[in-house]
Records
---
Amino acid sequence: MRIDGVSYRTIWLASDGIGVEIIDQTRLPHDFVVLTLRSLADAETAIRDMWVRGAPLIGAAAAYGMALATREDATDAGLAAAYARLHATRPTAINLKWALDEMIAALSPLPVADRIAAAYARAAEICDEDAAMNSALGDNGCRIIADLWAKKQAAGGERINLLTHCNAGWLATVDWGTALAPVYKAFNAGIPIHVWVDETRPRNQGASLTARELNWHGVPHTVIADNTGGHLMQHGLVDLVIVGTDRTTRNGDVCNKIGTYLKALAAKDNNVPFYVGLPSPTIDWTVADGVKEIPIEQRSAREQTHIFGKTEAGTVTEVQVTPDGSPAVNYGFDVTPARLITGLITERGVCPASPEELKALFPERG
């Protein structure tokens, strides 16, 4: 994607061929800062403290974290220790474990002396594969939007109104995004599309990240409070919802940013199509019941009680929004059952959220 005319991915190899550069997403939307990761500890911190975030990007960062770890200790014991440290950073997104498993599979059979080069090569491949999968996912989702637009245009409509939750754009992946990849493809194809952007408390990834990248790309959008979506659906102002996912079960349940479940309930009640964009590494084939089996990350209560923003003087600062002494709890994700989902948009096509349909798209996992 492009920022001020310059093409970027969210993660790339530094010019010295050793460090790994990332966009510090905790500084957006007000500051664009590139950081260089130079050690396993740097990668661990970047994932845990959400300098990088979004399931596919977490996986890519973990892959490069393993590459950095081989420079410190490429033995079997070193790989195992690096795996454990990176795996512990974020418990919900399955792409993290998937990428770590891919790295171990690529490195374990090799002599220790060959592992550094192989680690960097496999991490780069994982990044390229993610970008390709999300581009294909975007093409498949764009067809859904195009079909809806053809019907709405024939009825005299002026634009497609799409609602999304959290950030599942290119900032959450290596490139293109998951939920927003169809939006970018549709916009680039000339379809008039407008995006309702949930602010997504408590970290405000919608207001700070989704709005920022839509603004960069020139896509019309409006930021709304998290509780506005149901009202918009009741009044016919939402044509479809597309969200991302951090883990999808083999039965089609979807775990995504907290508040997604409520959007799905509102969409169901108002007959609004509810889609989920997901590259296949986000599917956890070992889990059936998302509500019972997916671990839900609980993050610091400070994310709930405090908020970052820019003052009128232009200073970015943090302020407390709750009374002194009021406790808070901060669940990072919730699970939307398959019965509420219209379809899953993958790189191989679109299918209903069911075990049979998922297996039909990915027969090698059956």
---
Amino acid sequence: MVDYFEFYGLPVTFHPDPALIKKKFYELSKKYHPDFYINESEEKQAEVLELSTINNKAYQVLSDPQKRVHYILELKGQLIDGEHYTLPQSFLMEMMDVNESLMDLQFDPDAERLAALKAEIDEIEKGLSDQIAALTTSFEHKDKEAQLRILTAIKDLYYRNKYLYRIRESIKKAESAA
């Protein structure tokens, strides 16, 4: 896995300077533009194309707060492919109620109840976002042990957000059916 922070010469942070990310992106876009290597060997052209691709991916990830959280969790070994993360029972019970309400709305559409459910999800999502923001703000100033605890907490919130994303998709379907 390529370390995009290292590629851009930046420290690993949840809150990098957007202007600096953009500056690095443009700088490397010029440096690794394939047109400048047209007379080079095929190997060199392939290498430059790979670096150009890495630069594009790095910019996409580092400039998007949600992708950046996912990436940092991955980079720090918190997210593992195929992992079956178990969300807390209290959260799952709350989501079960939401899912039941959504099922009821499929059989008995009600724009008012759907709007109330959407507002409830917005509120839960805002709470999770606020918690993530508080944790990520303090991350860089902590020792390794504290950083690990923060990453574990962020991972839990990340998975809750993923779950909410699926519910939000179901709400969109319910809205389009109404």
---
Amino acid sequence: MKRLLILVAAAVLTHPFGTAQSKKTVSCKVQGFAAKNHRAMGPHKAPTDGSCKVHQKNGFPMPDPGCTPGAINPTVTLDVLKSSNFATGCIRNKVESEDAKGAAYAWYALLAPSHNKGATQTCELDHLVPLELGGGDSMDNIWAQCGPSGVVLKERYFKQKDEVERYLAGQVKAGAMDLKTAQRAIAKDYTQFIEAAKHH
């Protein structure tokens, strides 16, 4: 009986309709889309180590607008976002490598934390305008978002911002908010959407 159960489980995992094979493949081939296109949303100075200052808004950290004004990929339109051939992986690490983005820690006078994964994650190299809202994968859209300490993972600042990103992406795709409006609003003050995202 035990042998039979093992065989059945193996069949499910290797069957083309099983969970192991059900991940949708994304081609990234969408008319008009260019992965490396990006445009800053404001003036952007070339930061040096320690030159960028985090400020607070409604109890949440916000990036230095001179270092991280936000950036968009103007080829990511609503039609592109809604295409089955598009996912954020089509943009990620196409302009800057993951290693290059690590410079943002030094800009904000922070040490990159070790063991920064799963339940022990304390910081995120965050896209101010998220990729799911057409954000650019460029350094003018990257900042180091850390803390607070002593809370569970879902209560860390970057996880709460993730909720805002999902909420706004849903609003845009549903036609309840214009894409450009959402991009400008999250770049200016993502904290204004924290409560709406929690209760949506």
